[in-house]
Amino acid sequence: MRITVNRALLIVLGLAYLSLSLLRRSFYSPGLVDWKTIEILSSLIVINASLMMSGGIDFLSLKILEFTKDRRQLLLTSIILTSSLAMFLTNDVALLVLVPLTVSIGKFTKKNVEDVIIFQAIAANVGSMLTPFGNPQNIIIYGLNHLNYPQFISNMFPPYLFSMVVLLLFVGFMGNEKLATQATPTRPNYGLFATNVVLLSVVISAMALNLSGWFFIAAIIVSIASLLVIEPAGIVKVDYVLIVVFILIFLVMNSLKLIVRIPVPTNVIEIYILSIIFSQFLSNVPTTVLFGKISSWVPLSYGVNIGGNGTVIASLANLIALRNISGKNFLKFNKYSFLFLLITGAIGLIWLLK
Predict the structure, then answer these.
(1) Could you tell me which of 94, 34, 41 has the C-alpha nearest to residue 242?
(2) Region at 199 (left for phi over 0; alpha for psi -120 to 50; beta for the rest)
(3) 9, 75, 118, 137 - which has most CB atoms within 10 Å?
């Protein structure tokens, strides 16, 4: 069995939780897991898998990419597509959809497109920060602090805007060359695609209205049923391991807080800087769970979203993208990602100090 990123995380987190359970002499306690957040994440994972199985997103993306004539246009198109999809389908799903397309375009054009993939990883982190459902850390912060959509988006628009401007400036300095793509999109399964677009709309609306977790469970059941009826082979391609990984993140981090007293900062700047630093070593989702509900959610949200860039493990999206690049371009990713983190991190700090 091939060891994927998610399976490796499952093993590491599983062993960590087992060790913490032995220390606590308790395998489970109520309150360790925010089950409603898990229900929301699970519904998005299942629905997004169904959307990918339908071929609808591939079809739309390739249709748009057909109009790119050179590398810079491909970079810009990929960044806009990736950041836009990440707002609604989460950053990791956006990359799972678009990175294979980029790889295919590289094959058809016989060009190295690994630099495009590097910028797609950054774009996924940037686009996902704007919406409450763009990435797992936002879903957690949104739920724990009982926020509403306008409140969240208005607070996250400044870091999204300056991060996108910096990203586009990066692209402006990249080299350029002609491209000629010959990729032909296949027709999607419209029934499966339409069903899950509706379900995605239902989940987003249920989040906005703070509806019961049963709405998300119902969406999961309907989405799985649509796969069973229309595309039964796709049922095994849902990332169930990722759902268990998110449950284990809650279990490990909240168990750790019960064993070791971890002082949570209350100062806005401390929250921001520490959440960026912790994200580089723990990844941004575990960092969010570790901080939990704190006095000021805005600097935490700034920190874990901006902190998604930097190290490879700062965001799961980085790991997804970097599976497709070589060792030489892995170093290039570090150069661009850390430079991007330093610039956007400094701008974020100035904005919070204003």
Answers:
(1) 41
(2) alpha
(3) 137
Whose CA is closest to 321, among 3, 78, 37? 78
Residue 82: name the closest of 133, 117, 45 by CA. Answer: 117
Residue burial 181-201, b: 16+ Cβ < 10 Å; e: rest:
beeebeebbeebbebbbebbe
Helices (H), 110-189: 114-128, 136-144, 149-172
Q: Cα(260)–Cα(105) distance, rounded to whole angstroms?
A: 49
Rounded Cα–Cα distance for residues 80 and 171 (Å): 12
- Rounded Cα–Cα distance for residues 152 and 129 (Å): 10
163-221 pLDDT tens trace: 999 999 988 877 666 665 555 667 888 999 999 989 988 888 888 787 888 999 999 99
Bridge partners for 70 per DSSP:
178
